[in-house]
Model the fold of this input.
Amino acid sequence: MGKTLDSLRSRLLVKIVIPVAMVLFACIFLWADFYVGEQERFARTNLIIEVDRVGNTVQLGLNYAMLLNSRDDIKAIIRNYGRLNEIRAIRLLNKQGQVMFSSGDDEAGGTVDQAEPLCQVCHRLAKPSVKPNLTERVYSDAQAGGEHVLRLVSPVFNEESCHQNTDCHFHSAEEKVLGLLDISFSLADSESLIAGFKKKSVYLACILFFTTFATLCLLIYALIKTPINRIMEQAKILSRGQRPGEQAVRTTDEIGQLSKAINQMGTDLIVKNEQLGMQKNLYRDLFEGVPCLVTVQGRDYRLIRFNRAFAERFAAKVGDHCYKAYKNRDKPCDPCPVAKTFETGKSHTTEETGRYKDGAAAHWIVTTAPIHDSKGKLVAAMEMCLDITERKDLEGELKRSERKYIDIFNNIPSAIFVLDPIDFAILDCNLSAIHVYGYAKDELMGKSFLEFFAEDNWDAFSQAIKTGAVINQAKQVARDGREFFVSINSSPSEFSGKAVFL
Done:
């Protein structure tokens, strides 16, 4: 039950309809209450006017009888008017408050005290009011005999016909009011009509409320909820990375514009996602396909990710420490290029040695690169290891071969010189050359080979060396001045990357 209520409260239709319905209900029923109240006041005013009209009619009917002082006629007229359906009583009083005539026989002859509401209509002020207004003349509006009775008093004014051209009447011309006409009027029929009007007004208000409410619900459902549901379905399709096809709502209003914007935004997002997917696949292929070992390590030196080449060569898994995977160590290397990257935020390159999972020794050139998050914080480092094991093996082989040839070069019994091809300066020589010529090696370095010849024909000797011609029985001089004959063979060669003669 609670989930159902929460679901209803969360719906847009309910959030819109309930407040609008409350305002609509309040407005309609306030209007109905105001309208019924106005109609009640209008009906009451008309009823008072009608009672006053009846009173005027009674006075007109009594006028001639009172001029003649025909008491029987007066009594008959009052009784006849008292038989009207709505009239409950009619009394005619003189100025002293004595009931002269009444529609009921039991009231005639009685006296009304001046303190009674009937007399207070005129005598409530120090100076009696001669002509009170219609509202002031209603002196009683209460229940009587089980029904609502309205009592209205009308003054009977002294007329010219009462005191002119006659000697029989005892009222003087100075008297303004001769008496009062008191009428009691039943409101039963009027209240019945008003009650019926109230009931119909309530029915009308309910019909208006429910009709307007239903129309509002239908409009909201048709113009808001249904289009929004379509837009939501469109958004779900977009969230799955699928193209939604045509626009969900094709209208020119705000919801149509919203649908158009969502459709365009979703299409753009799908295109961007496709491009990102292509780039992601490209980067993944590059990451997996590069011929070097690539790992991503966190600040705790644990492996976050690695490529296929690394997985094939090491028995490691995600979460292992890099130093354990590479070198089977229990603590970080010193120095560590990854640690330097975390410290400086820059790339570093070193040469490292370790072993693969098969136990074979390996050598790598290690290059690190920082990895930042979306806020620019350094969170990881990428380590790329290029295998240089073969190169290292070749370097070792080359060094061994070089040592072998150096041993041959130094121990061969013939003197061997390495000469500059331009000025024939000695660049290197073997031990036999040192023994034969009697010079220390540092004395020979830089000395021209042509200086060893006893003859001065250097041009011929230099040309023979350049062309590789054999020089037989050439006389040369040792350091101690001793002369000896040598045979010379020359050939072009390379020494430390430079062209030379041997």
